[in-house]
Amino acid sequence: MKRVYSNLSLAAAFSIAFVACQQNDILTESNTSGNPHSSAREASANTVPNELLIKFKNGVSSSKKDEILEKLGAKLKEKILTKMMEKAGDNEGVTLVELPMAAFEALSKTKDFDEIEYAEPNYIYTHEATSNDPYFTNGSLWGMSSANQYGSQAATAWAANKTGSSAVYIGIIDEGYMYTHEDLTANAGVNPFEIAGNGIDDDGNGLRDDVYGWDFDGNNSSVFDGVGDDHGTHVAGTIGGVGGNGKGVAGVVWNVKLLGAKFLGSRGGTTANAIKAVDYFTGLKIKGLNIVATNNSWGGGGFSQALQDAIERANAAGVLFICAAGNSSSNNDAVANYPSNYPNSNIIAVASITSTGGLSSFSSYGATKVDIGAPGSAITSTVPTGSKRSVTSGYASYSGTSMATPHVAGAAALYASLNPGATAAQIKTAILNSATPTPSLAGKCVTGGRLNVSTF
Fold first, then answer.
1. Contact 171, 295 (CB under 8 A)
2. Which residues of 259-297 are buried (b: 16+ CB within 10 A; e: fewer)?
């Protein structure tokens, strides 16, 4: 997995990491305590140094806030108030501040002020058809296979002409993704409420020309910035690589629309930007775009109330939050992994299995905190290759729970395409109820089984 920083929580910001991978390289995530507010977990988390996210109680005057910040020695860095916060009745938002002291030292001082509802570090997160596509025909795509009993059985669905729908959208919260890739361009979604290139915020979400999504790390409309966006591109290919085109790979769904919310950069991603990314897709859903789910192949940091609240806003809008269980080989029931351990009902937490049905050596698990297993070891998918000046379409094999997660996101898209109007709860139930019992997952996840889309 790669590392992500959160603008919302200071001391924990540097501890959030991508749940997935470098090529042939498995990274681990920080362990977390079973207590969501465990200081041991948060103390070990990566955070943005000298930053805090502060939530003031309703009704606190501007002068009082200024007084408190002055006593803390804090400087305002950003007021985070998304459209979705306002729609939920929160007109206060969250305040990101810079401090002259370490985040955890500052946290203890915030307890002296009754006007503060909560304060937290700005955590850092990191990554964790019959087809004529070459990587399928040569057997590389075992995760899609019906010949391998431990694959997702997507090939069985393809054979029954169940290949997805362009009316279904999946949001990729990750790095950017290469929407011009030869195996992705046909499935690259656009924001229908925005007019490209006119420099105007047509849809009123505060972002200009967010046609393919938005880069919250760079604060611009460029959702693909080169070969460094390999993780997000790999995830995209597993969800919706174009099938039957004689090129490369095939995703779980051959027809789908993908949109990007880039919040992971070269140093990872922050809580602050994760919140904005989640709210971005919630806003599009409320506006009428059929956002079925977001794929979240990242993790790290400690408990964030602000991020949990954002996930709940997505839940209220009917958007699934499908996320990686983590790569720390640990029991998430005992040692919490975020965001997969949040209690929101729209979360599906995904463990990784191998091509022989075993729980991947790196994969975290949890009888009550992880929902299902899916292919995550040696997964071939799309990546950008070349140099900064010359980027071309390529393919690579990665491993991680980051790779397992998009199999489930693709499954959500497939079910939604076959059952228009299905609610998020119905889609989640269908995915979990269709899981195939698997010995390596018995007692290791809620279903005790692995992803199987053949009966959708």
1. yes
2. bbbbbbbebbbbbbbbbbbbbbbbbbbbeebbbbbbbbb
Domain that holds residue 311: 134-450
HSE at residue 125, side-chain half, CA atoms within 13 A, is 38
Alpha-carbon dihedral 317, 281, 188, 159, rounded to 10 degrees? -30
Catalytic residue among 30, 209, 210, 231: 231
Is 98 a member of any domain?
no
Catalytic residue selected from 9, 304, 402, 440: 402
Look at the pTM and tell me if it is higher than 0.85: yes
The three-state secondary structure class of 402 is helix
Looking at residue 357, the DSSP 8-state letter turns out to be: S
- Let me know if residue 108 belongs to a domain: no
- 234 carries an active-site annotation: no
The β-bridge partners of 261 are 173, 214
Q: Which of 6, 9, 145, 174 is catalytic?
A: 174
For residue 72, being part of any structural domain is answered with: no
Please report, to the nearest 10 degrees, the dihedral formed by the alpha carbons of residues 355, 359, 361, 367 taken in order: 160
**What total of structural domains would you count in the chain?**
1
Catalytic, 231? Answer: yes
Chain CA centroid to CA 197, Å: 28
Residue 185: give its domain's CATH number. 3.40.50.200
61 part of a folded domain: no
Residue 445 CA neighbour count, 13 Å, CB half = 32
Report which residue type is found at 44: S
pLDDT tens string, the chain, 456 residues long: the values are 433 333 433 333 333 455 445 333 322 222 333 344 433 334 446 899 899 999 999 999 999 999 999 999 999 999 999 999 999 999 999 999 999 988 888 899 999 999 999 999 999 998 873 345 567 777 788 888 788 888 898 889 888 889 999 999 999 999 999 999 999 999 999 999 999 999 999 999 999 999 999 999 999 999 999 999 999 999 999 999 999 999 999 999 999 999 999 999 988 999 999 999 999 999 999 999 999 999 999 999 899 999 999 999 999 999 999 999 999 999 999 999 999 999 999 999 999 999 999 999 999 999 999 999 999 999 999 999 997 778 999 999 999 999 999 999 999 999 999 999 999 999 999 999 999 999 999 999 999 999 999 999
Q: Is 402 a catalytic residue?
A: yes
